[in-house]
Design brief:
This protein is 54% helix and 14% strand. By secondary structure, the protein is an alpha/beta fold. The protein folds into two domains: 73 residues; 93 residues, GMP Synthetase, Chain A, domain 3 (2-Layer Sandwich). Strands 1-2-3-4 form a four-stranded mixed beta sheet. Helix 2 packs parallel to helix 4. The chain starts with 26 loop residues before the first helix and ends with a strand.
Length: 170
């Protein structure tokens, strides 16, 4: 297979750099084709790659916009760890943003929402959406139960077990 100038690796910032790939077809395959067909297939591969790279840039831009919105709604406990986790689990951004209104509806509009990444062995597997609670334990439990019953139980499957919502008494 033809070489690419930059290997695709976890963590490539698609908005700044896109890997170049000359061709998706093995050289032996291309040599067996008539030159017109080989050129045609090469053009198709180039178009597909260009479209894919453009799409990745768009995904990265959308993700950055969602991260910006998330920073407005939540305090990041350890900013770098939270951002790395969310970049590796892109689908969670939307769920965390969707949870803001129900959380504030159950706990109160002025509560502080915080994101914390769990300290799992190896790569972290869970992010915690924590409500910083200044009232008593009983009211925190009641609010969390209401959140679970009115929103989280219907939406928890979207998170695939990677989000836990809880409270922290202060």
């Amino acid at each position: 297979m033809n070489q690419s100038y930059e290997e695709q690796a976890k963590g490539i910032n698609w908005a700044e750099s896109t890997p170049n790939a000359v061709n998706w077809f093995p050289e032996e395959f291309l040599q067996q084709l008539p030159s017109e067909e080989s050129q045609f297939r090469s053009e198709i591969a180039d178009r597909l790659l260009t479209k894919y790279e453009h799409q990745m840039v768009q995904f990265t831009q959308t993700q950055e916009q969602e991260l910006t919105k998330l920073r407005i709604e939540y305090v990041f406990d350890e900013t770098h760890r939270v951002e790395v986790f969310l970049k590796e689990h892109r689908a969670l951004l939307e769920i965390l943003l969707d949870a803001v209104i129900p959380l504030r509806g159950c706990f109160g509009k002025d509560v502080v929402l915080q994101l914390q990444v769990g300290w799992d062995e190896g790569a972290p597997k869970t992010i915690y959406g924590v409500v910083i609670w200044k009232n008593d334990l009983a009211s925190a439990r009641t609010a969390l139960k209401k959140f679970d019953e009115t929103w989280w139980l219907d939406n928890s499957k979207r998170a695939s077990g990677r989000i836990v919502f809880d409270y922290e008494l202060v």
